[in-house]
Amino acid sequence: MVGFEDKEGFKNSELWVGDTGTTCHMVCNDKNLYDVILVNDKVIVGDGRSLSVKKMGNLKVNFKNEDKNISTVVLENIKFVPSLKLNLFSLALSMKKGWKLESKGTTLTFIKMRN
Prior knowledge:
Strand content: over 45%
Oligomer: single chain
Structural class: mainly beta
Radius of gyration: 14 Å
Number of strands: 8
Order of helices and strands: EEEEEEHEE
Shape: globular
Helix content: under 10%
CATH topology: Cathepsin D, subunit A, domain 1
Largest sheet: 4 strands, mixed
Distance between the termini: 35 Å
Number of helices: 1
CATH class: Mainly Beta
Number of domains: 1
């Protein structure tokens, strides 16, 4: 698990980690989820622990686009896992949904592929 120090005033619930191993997006705070449904599910994390999933919903997330402007993307069917310390962004799921991942130095860029 990756951890972050709170040097810039970020709360862990505002931090996202790109994860190649997770099959879904997961959040540790349900504050901005919408179209929420209550669930009683579990996810297995990288160290083998089973964590409870309490809700699922959609989330609007802002990203900087190529022009440095803010674009909003809706992440669907996000799982709310209260015991997570930060949010997990599923790189595998995003690529499966038609996004291309590029890396330049320490910067990861997602590009929406046209159909």
